[in-house]
C-alpha cells in the first residue's frame, strides 16, 4: 500500500511540475523549485537525522533518512505554486497563502502519519510541521521573489 502511495505521489509531483510550466517561465519555476529543494533537504536532514521523525517506508532508504519524494519533488513543486499564486500579492497576501499551503501540507502529513507507514512522529508534532513549513515556504517565496525580480531588471 505504501509503495503504491509513494509512486502515486511521484506521478502527481511530476504532473504538477510539468503543468507549472504553463503558468510560469522556466527561470521562475527553476528558481522557486531549486531554492525550496535546497532548503527542504537541509532542514529535512536535520530533523530526520536527529530522530525527531522517521520515514519507515521511503525511496533510497539505504542512502538517506529523509523523504526524498517530499523534499526533492513535492515540497519544491508546492513552492512553485506558492510563487505562481502570490506573484501579485502584497506581504499579507503572501503570508496568508504560505499559511494556507502549509496547512494543507500539514493536514496531508497528519493523515499519512496516522494511517500509513510513510511517516512517524517521534519527538515531533503536526504543530512543528506547520510552523516549519510556513516559515520555510515564506522565506523561499520572498527570496525567490527577490532573485527573480533582480533578474528581470
TrEMBL record:
List residues traversing the bilayer. 6-24, 31-55, 67-84, 91-112, 124-144
This protein's source sits in the domain of life called Bacteria
Task: Work out whether the entry's keyword set contains Transmembrane helix.
Answer: yes
**Keywords recorded for this protein, A-Z:** Membrane, Transmembrane, Transmembrane helix
Kindly provide the name given to this protein in its UniProt entry: Uncharacterized protein
Taxonomic source organism: Geobacillus icigianus
Amino acid at each position: 500500500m505504501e509503495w503504491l502511495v509513494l509512486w502515486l505521489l511521484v506521478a502527481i509531483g511530476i504532473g504538477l511540475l510539468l503543468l507549472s510550466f504553463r503558468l510560469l517561465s522556466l527561470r521562475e519555476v527553476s528558481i522557486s523549485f531549486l531554492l525550496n529543494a535546497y532548503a527542504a533537504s537541509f532542514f529535512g536532514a536535520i530533523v530526520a537525522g536527529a530522530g525527531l521523525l522517521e520515514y519507515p517506508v521511503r525511496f533510497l532508504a539505504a542512502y538517506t533518512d529523509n523523504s526524498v519524494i517530499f523534499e526533492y519533488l513535492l515540497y519544491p513543486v508546492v513552492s512553485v505554486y506558492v510563487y505562481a499564486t502570490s506573484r501579485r500579492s502584497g506581504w499579507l497576501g503572501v503570508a496568508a497563502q504560505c499559511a494556507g499551503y502549509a496547512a494543507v501540507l500539514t493536514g496531508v502529513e497528519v493523515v499519512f502519519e496516522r494511517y500509513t507507514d510513510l511517516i512517524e512522529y517521534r519527538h515531533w508534532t503536526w504543530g512543528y510541521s506547520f510552523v516549519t513549513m510556513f516559515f520555510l515556504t515564506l522565506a523561499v517565496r520572498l527570496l525567490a521573489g527577490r532573485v527573480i525580480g533582480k533578474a528581470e531588471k
